[in-house]
Each structure stands twice: as structure tokens, then as C-alpha cells.
Specification:
Largest sheet: none
Order of helices and strands: HHHHH
Number of strands: 0
Number of helices: 5
């Protein structure tokens, strides 16, 4: 690279030397040993699953909160009957009314 332009099309000796050093064939055993040395220590199957547990639980909670927000009914006119109103009614217990109390979905 020249001092005039950092995008000069000329050869860069330092980069070329570094690439030649890394990409020269041969020394496979050295390469394999360097790669294996850079890997983290292999644990058991349970150690791997334990590493996934905390992010997995966080993701499951996030999905549950999002689904709960999405499935919560919006205001549809009137308030939902309370348990006292459902049980104090003179008529027989209505399964739909009981379900609406349990789910809080209204009448």
C-alpha cells in the first residue's frame, strides 16, 4: 500500500507473508494440535445440556409471557362475573359462567 491511497492495488508484503505462513501445506499434525488445543475441554453429555438449560428456561419463559399476553382477552364490553355472582345466582350452576370466571373472559 502506498502512502497516497490505502486502497492501492499493489501487493502488501506483510499480508502476503502472513498468508503464506498460514496457508502453506504440510505440518498437518501441528495444525490439528493447534485446533484441538483451542477447543474448550470436552465435558460429558450432561455438562452440555446443563449449559443449554439456563438460556432454554429463559426462552421458554419469554414465549410463555408472549403467549399469555396474546391470549388474554381484551375488554369486550362488560366486566367478567365474579365467583360470588356465579355462586349466588338462583339458577343452577352454568358451566359456561363457571368457565368464564375461571378464565376471566367475561360473560
Amino acid at each position: 500500500m502506498s502512502a497516497n491511497s490505502p486502497f492501492d492495488a499493489g501487493r502488501d508484503r506483510e499480508l502476503g507473508d502472513a498468508l503464506r505462513l498460514v496457508l502453506t501445506p504440510g505440518g498437518n499434525a501441528e495444525f490439528v494440535s493447534r485446533v484441538l488445543a483451542s477447543l474448550p475441554a470436552a465435558g460429558s453429555f450432561w455438562d452440555v445440556l446443563a449449559g443449554w438449560a439456563r438460556p432454554g428456561i429463559a426462552a421458554a419463559l419469554l414465549v410463555a409471557v408472549a403467549l399469555g399476553y396474546w391470549l388474554v382477552p381484551r375488554d369486550q364490553g362488560g366486566p367478567a362475573p365474579t365467583a360470588v355472582e356465579v355462586l349466588a345466582a338462583d339458577q343452577p350452576l352454568d358451566q359456561d359462567a363457571l368457565t368464564s370466571v375461571l378464565l376471566g373472559t367475561g360473560r
